[in-house]
Amino acid sequence: APSLRAADVGISVEKATDVARAAADILLLEPDLGVLHAGVMEGRVTFGNVMKYILMATSSNFGNMFSMAAATLFLPFLPMLPMQILLNNLLYDLSEIPIPTDRVDREELLTPPRWDMHLIRTFMLVMGLVSSVFDFATFWILTHVFCASAPLFRTGWFVESLVTQVLVIFIIRTRRSPAQSLPSLLLTVTTVGIAITAAMLPWSPLCADLGFIRPSAALYLALAAVAAAYLTTVEGVKRLLYRHLAATRTR
After folding, report:
1. Cβ-proximal residues to 82 (8 Å cutoff; 6+ apart), any chain
2. Which residues does 178 contact at the CB level (< 8 Å), separation at least 6?
3. pTM (two decimals)
4. Which pLDDT does position 14 carry in this prediction?
């Protein structure tokens, strides 16, 4: 009983003595330790998926905050209306709901995970700034190439911001190449569906009510090029970042 009480997790069996059962945290109803192994692995999967959400949300929010603050310094109008920001956040959060159903890479399950604030902080700063760089590129394209009015600017940035935010989960969710670690079907469907929704909203009956206008095909092509360049850059920066963090820990 003292050992069970002192342990981080005391484990006993159903037919143990009363004092042993009272001191234990877990009672095995059957003489099989396999259920403990399954519980540990499920806990590691849960931790891994929680970390995906944290890394994605912190870097995305930091990047958007930085871009929004910078845009207000040189634009004579609000870069995005409050209603558009709320809609952007709502659709973004909907795309993240299926993260608990996602797979976790096998190498992430081999050792007990640890809460790593240094990783979270570094990832947030680096990836957030990468996101802002491509936001600034979008701003330049909208203002200098398409001479966008306020409604067109907001439409273009809304589409670019939401599409890049949701599609980047395919890269952030794994330390491997996205082609080597496939996401769950539900996460894939939801993420792609939200990206398509973002692109189609300016063509929906809600267009005027949301403060959007219909962009040209040329603008869509430009935004698609920015999104593709952003995702490619994030993959390269991710590999360099994890390599740097691994080298730092081995010193």
Report:
1. none
2. 170, 171, 235
3. 0.88
4. 86
